[in-house]
Amino acid sequence: MKKMFVTLVFLLGLTGLFAQEKHELTLYFESDQFLLSEEEKARLTDFLNTLELKRLTDIEIIGHTDAKGSYEYNLKLSEKRKEEALEFIQLFIHQNDQLQGIKYSVRSEAKSESIPIATNDLKEGRKLNRRVDIKLTIPIPIACNGLLNPIPEKEEISSKKTNPFSSTDDFFKSYISPKQTFSINAQENTKLTTDGKVNIYIFANSLKNKNEDLVIGNVQIEITEFLNRSDMLLANLHTMSNKRMLESGGMFLIEAFQNGEKLNNHLNQAIEISIPFEGAPKENMITFLANETDMNWIPQDNNLLINRRFINNTFSDLDQCNMLFGGTTNSKKKAKLNFGFWLKYIFQPKKRKRKRRRIKRENKKIEQRDARCQALLEAYAKELKALKIKYDQFAEGKLPLEEVKKEVINNYIMSTSSLGWINCDRFYNIEHKTDLFTDIPFVPEYDIKLIFTDIKSILVPYNNDGKFIFTNIPVTNKVKLFITRTTEEQVEYAIIDKYQTSEQLALDQIQFKPVQDIKALKEILELTFPS
Fold first, then answer.
1. How does pLDDT run across 126-176, given as a tens digit for each residue?
2. What is d(CA 481, CA 448) in angstroms, rounded to the nearest whole number?
3. Burial level of 89, CB count in 10 A (0-12/13-18/19+)?
4. The pTM is what?
5. How far apart are CA 472 and CA 479, in angstroms?
6. Are 408 and 269 in contact (CB under 8 A)?
7. What is the DSSP string of 304-316?
8. What is residue 348's predicted lDDT score, i.e. its pLDDT?
9. Do 203 and 269 contact (CB within 8 A), yes or no?
10. What is the mean pLDDT of the chain?
């Protein structure tokens, strides 16, 4: 009896020699769909391949939906989603010969729309709510006083999650920004339209090779656009010029290649970029270029091709001129040489002279107005051609005035004589400034950005006695802080609302969350910093 008791105590003691490690993954679904997409199947397969499933003890799967549709319908949909994920995992285990015979428990539940992780009022939020949360429990045996054999070194390395990124910079470099590739003839005028509805005009004989010779034949144009704050953050970009704050209208990386060889960034003729925007236009937007080495945005001498104030006045003047749909006003007043005129000419010489002078002055004003209108119309026609809008459609009345106004006024039109990193920005005027101090160590394992919630502006900190510090911040603007850090096991992030920038940010007050993958982080940033 005593021997059995000792044996029982020994066996019970062994149960405490296992560390319970949970591995989590979230899968996402299209609206009103429960089948896994090929992309999500690939993510789940990669996830399972990284785990030591021989020790799997528990599977927990929870299905969710967004708030569209009735609760009862969504409950059935979330049930189908979690069953789809569970069947995929069980099929994966069944088809693996090394996993035959393992025993594990399954807990699955359908939650319908009851546990959202983002707002259902936005499309991006609903996308994050259409999900299945997966948790796999895999105990790791721990050696203790020789009672258990230590895990072999090779097996220990394969079962322990290690962080492949030694610094936050390495982590951001792992994000591959989507490139758009176009094939053009270098000897022809070409208009390129990106996914972000940006128009880029490359004129004939603009491209040069490394020997400064004009390029002949077909070339490939690669364009990467960063129009939103989320895209800028993942690409580790900022909006600063020599420590001065900028407000961005959009960033681009434009490169040209021929036969796999990169062409000269310096152009023979400037290209033009038309960037759409919403709301009122920002004054003083100009072109900035950056060197990839330090990514410091340097203003260029050339301003926007179309000045907002000039365009608005132009439209007003053209409206008054009544010349918008071809032809001239033909409204000159001419002296009427009738019988009454000759009577006044003979018997009222003073009155006749005054009237003739008045008519002459009026005719001169009309001539000046017509000349100005004609000049404005010609200048405007050139701008329309630069935008690839056919002037004859406009002049013949085939294109309504309001559409022309929208096409021109709702776009920033910039020019640059160089390819590479291009930014449409303006210097942000700061009336009342403050600083934000932190006790976060200034080391490669940490990265922190300050993002404004009302404008497209991202600031980077500086080293202040081994700590991060932000300087010259506008007092009136609300900001968020996006912080990432790398540990031995994983990459973590935190997003913090900061309303009183004068208060110090303490490291122990930050609640970090693990980064599952770049895609999940991108969706979170898109929801947090909408365009």
1. 888 999 999 999 887 654 444 444 444 444 444 455 788 888 888 888 888
2. 7
3. buried
4. 0.55
5. 13
6. no
7. -SS-HHHHHHHHH
8. 58
9. yes
10. 78
